[in-house]
Amino acid sequence: MTTSPTDADLPQRMGPPEPGTPEAAVQAALRRLPPRLRRTVAQLLSQWPGRIALRSAASCVRIEIFDRSMTIAAQFFTSVFPILILMATWVGAVGADEIADAVDMPDESRSVLDQAVQTSGGATFGIVGTLIVLVSATSLSRALTRAFAAIWHLPRPRSSLKSAWRWLAVVVALALSLVVVRALSGFVDAVPPRNFWQRMVVLASDLVLASFVPWLLLSGAVRLRRLVPGAMIFAAVMLAVRPASSLWLPRALEVSADRYGSIGVAFTYLAWLYVVSFCALLTAVVGQVVAEDPGWLGRLIRGRAHPD
Asked: What are the sequence ranges of the domains in the chain?
């Protein structure tokens, strides 16, 4: 004779939840199911895929992933683009054409960018203007630091001058990655097999950035080996997102430029950056759940042969 799982059985299968958490809401919903269906669903959720999916969903709710994604997208737009223009006008590391190609900028906006780069120079920015641009750009790094700290259950980070170089290094690395990855992809595009090495360059760059950025911003509080799973998932997801965006983004930018001008282009970029930011946070959440899971894979990632 089989017995239906009691309320005490569910925590043993899924782990004791904290009151008010999504896990507690899931277990409350399970208790309302018929006994046979309840047992089946509880068993599915107790297995590795169900456990990872449930805990990832709970973490996404906890960190408010939709709000954070929009914040990071907006900060990326107002931080990275000024850095690129600053590099083009002051340092001369990149040109207007390289910036436009890296972000698939439509012709209507390219003329505005060319004019901004040609009419602006080191004298226009000045030392004070350059410092203002750099300090403002670090808002992206601070937003990312808060997001990664929330994902890894770390205390809310405090802003200090000791972390300024980390903020600046991350922003510059993200800005340069747009141009460098585009240049390397074009360089290896002719190497057979076609498109293979181009994708490998993009995959490697996404993997390095998704590991390097949180490790640097969190000052090494999370070991690099625990960050690698999320970075690998992000790089794999972007292999699918990038081709889709390469088809959608140029057309959307052209339509937005024709209908609404520069403001339409800005909103289109924000929509695209929101998708990328959401993917970055979501994969970081899944990577954290996988790395902290009590199963054999989590123990392997943490470098522990036995349960914690």
From this structure: 9-46, 66-302
**Contact residues for 12 (Cβ-Cβ < 8 A; gap 6+):** none
What's the Cα-to-Cα distance from 26 to each of 18, 29, 35, rounded to whole Å? 12, 5, 15
Per-residue pLDDT of 169-206, as tens digits, reads 999 899 888 888 877 877 777 777 777 888 888 899 99
Q: How many CA atoms lie within 13 A of 115 on its CB side?
A: 6
> In this structure, are residues 172 and 193 in contact, taking their beta carbons and an 8 Å threshold?
no
pLDDT tens readout for residues 129-176: 677 778 888 899 999 999 999 999 998 777 777 778 899 999 989 988
Alpha carbon distance 145, 151 (integer Å):
10
Residues 35, 1 contacting (CB under 8 angstroms) = no
Distances (CA, A) of 25 to 31, 53, 57: 10, 15, 12
Burial 76-107 (b: 16+ CB within 10 A, else e): bbebbbbbbbbbbbbeeebebebbbbbbbbbe
Three-state SS at 19: coil
Reported in sequence order, the residue ranges of the chain that DSSP labels E, i.e. its strands, are none
Q: Chain-centre distance of CA 278, in angstroms? A: 6
- Say if CB 139 and CB 168 are below 8 A apart: no
d(CA 63, CA 37): 31
